[in-house]
Amino acid sequence: MRPTRRARDRAGALTMPGAAIRGRRGVVWALGVLLLLGGGCRRSGATVLGVAPTPPPVSIAAARAAHPGQRLSVHGRMVEKCPVAGCWFVLQDGTGKLRVDTKTAGFVVVDVPLESRLTVSGWIRTTDGETNLEANGLRY
User: Fold this and answer.
1) What is the pTM of this model?
2) Whole-number Å distance between alpha carbons of 37 and 92
């Protein structure tokens, strides 16, 4: 008598050889698809302090050339900050550095790590010949 390709499982139902393997592969494949699709639904994890920056960011060189009172956003790396209260920091990009003041914004950057990439919005101010950004919000 020739053996058949069908076999009976423990419960007595007819099964095909390899069906369990295909079933496991299908489950693994389905989980992989769900992980890939679900990964795009996660939040970026960005933290906003104050008001979320809305104007498109400009370079620091462009911000330094802007007129006092002009509202804008800049993007760069925080390279220095107030060691006591976190009420100011220095932002740097490939075009230069800009001091950012947060005193009037209602937030501080004490908990924001140095070298963090930030997008900051606010108004250009000139004090004692030095151009600063008076922040109203940032995202990191």
Assistant:
1) 0.67
2) 36
Q: pLDDT tens for residues 40-86?
A: 444 456 899 999 998 899 999 999 999 999 999 999 999 999 999 99
Per residue in 25-52, pLDDT (tens digit) is 666 665 555 455 555 444 456 899 999 9
**121 and 79 in a common domain:** yes
The CATH number given to whatever domain includes residue 111 is 2.40.50.200
Q: Is 2 domain-assigned?
A: no
- Which of 80, 79, 62, 81 is closest to 70 using CA atoms? 62
